Structures are given as structure tokens and as C-alpha cells.
Amino acid sequence: MFDSMNIKKEIVDSLNAMGFKEPTEVQKQAIPPGLEGRDVIVKSKTGSGKTAAFLIPIINNLKKSHYPSAMVIVPTRELAMQVTDVAKQIGHNIGIRTFTVYGGASINIQIEAIRAGVNIIVGTPGRVIDLIKRGELPTDQIKFLVLDEFDIMLDMGFIDDVKYILSKIPQEKQTMFFSATIPSEIRAVTNKYTKNPIIINIDSKEVTVDTIEHYYSIARVADKFLTLLAYIDTKKPKKSIVFCRTQINAERIHTILRKVGIPAVLMHGGLSQSRREHSLSLFKSGTEMLIATNVASRGLDIDNVSDIINFDAEEDPKAYVHRVGRTARMGKSGRAFTILTPRERYLVYDIESYAKIKMNLLEFDLSSYKEKMKGISEQTNDFGDMAMRRNSGFGGDRRNSDKRPFNRRFGNNGNRNFHHSKRREFGNKYSNQD
To answer: Which of 126, 232, 290, 394 is deepest in the core (most CB within 10 A)?
Structure first.
């Protein structure tokens, strides 16, 4: 129970009002050293309750002043707004002022808010740096620093920005790193910027494997949308996120779903910030389906997502784990469904081997859905042709070749023969599914 963790009563009351009755595993392990002022490095998946795990110690120990005392750095605008919302709820009873800064919004309004006085700043790296360089974001009184979803920041190329921010924060502070994975690049940063940290490793299987049912279907590119409709009609997901590789795919799927009467909202990097915020608000408040690209959805922490649908598969099994981690939150059950072309069926072997799971094949009779789709057949055919042109056979775009190191693309220390032999083995095993 939170009331046995030496947390202020006002905060416990706020947590009760938010429906937080029992701490999650990451909260049990991270809050006590956080309350003691220790640096912590936490490996834990999104959806495990880690936002409260770092906010509770900060809000409990923070001494209110006119200038920022705490800073939380996150990779995306959407995540920044989510963290801010949780901070406002937890700190409501003790008057903690939290403000969000990110690109795409008026910097003048953000400057005015900081000048008016704020206790916790939650922001994305680029806008935080901009405000620091303008002299509008004082950092000399920062006592608490959190870097959340640090591996995503690394993937997005923010490592130099993070190092710059760290160089502007006083050395005497409490630093907390939260990341789903901790590769060598992250260890190098944490070793440099923490002092005798407490290392906490929350088993990722708690979030992404044991409580999720994993399914896949094999479909020709032109039949992928029909397969999506069949899954929706058969499984009737209550609240789902459909992941697409490109903005074009997301736009087309969103348009066609609405034409067949399925309410959905859209989120990708090409939309204005106001529309992305509106889509996220609608999805949280009741719309049952969100169509999103990877970049737009990184770090999203949304409750009660029942299904993750991978309309476009990712080659890297790690991407699969990140995606499906958005369902089965806080120990709940969930489903993940991936649509693969015949050329991508080897990914089942890769995902099963990496995540130590079993993916179950779903086969659908698409004939009835083809009849239903006759009214918009031209759109679906265009969609299939477009997808075929873009698909290089490995889930990528020939015009934007994969620039990852060879060993990261093919695994097993870059042994292409090993990778392709396993693909042939898996393909032969399922050759009757063409």
C-alpha cells in the first residue's frame, strides 16, 4: 500500500482518487530509493507504472519555489503531455505547479508560464535546449532530473541533446533514468551522470509476454486491408491501435475504415500538433481505434488498450515487443495481431525466438469481405498497389534503405547465411499457407 511507503498523506489521497490502490512492481522497487534521494536506473517497459514511480518521490520531496526544481525529459510531445497530466493529478493536493514545453507550440506562451513560476518542467529535448539557450529556462536550482524512455530518445537521435542538457544541470541533484532497454550507449551515459545508483530491472515478460495472446495472418499485399476487416469483425477489439509503417498507409487505412463505418482517429508526424492532441484526446475518451505510425506513437501510455494490430510488420523483433507493450497494461490481458505478406512469414520465427512466445495462425475467409468492399474497390486496389511498390520484401522502402548496421538488420552477429537459412527453414515449414 502507498500509505506504508512514507509518502505524504496529501499524495496518498491523490493516488486514491486516481484509482491507484496498490503499487506496481516498478513502483515498489523504485519509490523507496527515490524517496531517499538516491540516483536510480530502472529498466522497465512502458505501461508498468513507471511514471508514478518517479513522480511520487519528486513531488513528495520537492520544496516549492518560484523557479523550476525538477525536470523530466521525454522523447515526444504526446508523452510530455501525459507525464504532465499525471504530475498535476498527483501534486494537486499540495499545490505543485507543472508545465510542459515542446516544439510545435508557442514558445512565447511557454516563456510566460516559466516566468510566472513553475515547480516541475516536463519537456522534449529540442525545446528544452532552445529555452535554456535563450536564458528563459533557469536550471541552477534543479534538484531532480528524470530521463524517461531513454532508449527511445537514443533511437530518435537525441543523445547529444541529452548530454547538452545534463551539462547545464547542477552536479548536486538526484538523477533517475527509465528505459525499456539499456544498451551500451545508455550505460555509458548513466555511468557518467549518476552517483552510486540503485539498479532496478523489472522483467519485461511481466508486461509484454505472459498476459498477451499473439496472433498472425499471412495475406497478399492486396488482401491486407480485407484481413484487417476480418480480424476486427471476428475478434471485435474494444480499444485498439493499428500500426502502419508510413504516413500514407495510415491515411488510407483511416479513410477506408471510416468509409465502412468503423470510427477511428489518426496520428502521425505529418499532422499538426493540435490535430495530434485532438486525436489522442478522442482515443482516450472513447474512440475505439487509433491508426498510428511508430514515430507518432512512441512512448504513448494509454490505459485499457485491448488489441495491438500490426498492419505493417517491422523487421526488428524489438519493434514488435515495443509495439505490443502498449496493451496488457498494469497486468491486464491483451491481444496482438500481425498481418504478414508471404515474403515476411519468416518474421514469425524471428519474433518467437526473440520474445520467447508462441504466435498463433489465424486464417480468414475473405470472400464475404471482398463483396462488402466492392463499393470502394478502387481505393483498396490502389492501396495494395502502393504497398507493393513500397515493400522491398523486408518491410522497408527501397527509396529509404535501412541504414542500420548489418548485424542489427540480420542478427546473429551479421551472419546473413544463418538468417536466410532460418527463413528458408521457416518458409518451407509453412509453405502450404501461400
So the answer is: 290
